[in-house]
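pinned: reference chain
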Amino acid sequence: MKLLLALVKSVSGRIDFFKVLVNGPHPELAAFSNAIRGDDDAMVWLFKHNFAWLAILSNACDGDEKAIDWVRNGLTPVNLRFALACQHDIDSLKWLYKNKLGVLLMLVREVEKFLKYQQKEYDWPYVIHFGGHHRAIMELEEWKKEKLKTEN
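pinned: its structure tokens
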């Protein structure tokens, strides 16, 4: 529970909680926090350290349809509900509430706040748009190739 609360605070931008996560037993939560906040290095770290599912979950929270499909087929219903709730899916928000997953609802709120801020910044007329997370996309492609090799 404490780790999830630290994750909520880290996603909200609190550096002190980010440091708690990065120096604790689960640094992948720090990377996930930064991945949600659009950090390419964090995405690459997740793929390289066998936490691809967190990188993909981050993309699903951001509304990436392919990532949502992967979460739907490859992770638990809680992960899917969390990702959909981050995209304002009312049924998923109700499901999290009904199942007493308040800490995930707190995390959803912080993700939504950040996504609104990110969209506002992106919509500013003087922002140069470079077209996405190229390094993270390359790492995802590498991960998929390795996964296919091990499955065959």
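why pinned: Residues 127-131 have pLDDT under 50 and may be disordered. The two ends are 38 Å apart (CA to CA).
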